[in-house]
Amino acid sequence: MTDESQGVQLATLQDLARYWATDYDWRKIEAKLNALPQFITEIDGLDIYFIHVRSKYENALPLIVTHGWPGSIIEQLKIIDPLTNPTAYGASASDAFHVVIPSVPGYGFSGKPATSGRGPARVARAWIELMKRLGYARLAAQGGDIGALISNAMAEQAPPELLGIHTNFRGTIPPEITKALQSGEAPSGLSADEQHAFDQVKDFRAKHFAYAAMMATRPRLTHWRASSPTTHNGLVAGSSPAGPTKNISILLDLRCPHRDGRTRNVHFSFVHSRKGVRQLAC
Fold this sequence. Notes:
The protein has 282 residues and is of the alpha/beta class. The protein has helices at 10-23, 26-34, 77-84, 120-133, 146-157, 175-183, 192-207, 210-217, 229-236, 244-253, and strands spanning 38-43, 46-53, 61-66, 97-102, 139-143, 162-167, 255-257, 263-265, 269-274, 277-281.
């Protein structure tokens, strides 16, 4: 095929496979992670991995940032310094945050649930517990994609510590729009912008939603993705290797190429233990 009407083109996957096999540098990502304070703590029977960077400004607002799918904490590395050190980017000290970036259960270096039922609401409760363990009596939450669902769940639970949330992913569609999407006919009276949004959602559900339906109904059929970052990227969107490949190394591969050239399971060196929170390095 000369277009993407039937999915990702062969040339795109070949280029991604070549990049992963010959150009990708895990050690560069590993060094970036190990330059940051990383921790693991057990919450609700599961290990939770997170990065915790405090601002030099003591009045900074604690912020927990949650990644989406397909994604990982790698996506958030670029926002840590601007949030914790805003004066270096032209903002004021009052704009500073203490930043906490956890891996959602089942992702990256967090533990893998053995049973179903660990959805956004349950993870939201774990995030509040995490922030309490870190000594934060007030906080804000941010998230995109699945991270937005978790942040929304935190707001719905309305813990007294939570001051507010910010999301960059639509979490709801009006009931009349949902009904219209099922029939394929847009409601009357939509503005031009609303019609454009309707058409975008309609196109997404019709042509780009199969992966989500498969994972929701037959998740074990997709377990093979865990050993193949190439097939994972192809399944999702055929993205450029310059972006998601770094995420895939954390999200799915979970095996680090060792210095002797062989691949082995990721292991951690625990530096100290305090209040149930263990610091680690890859």
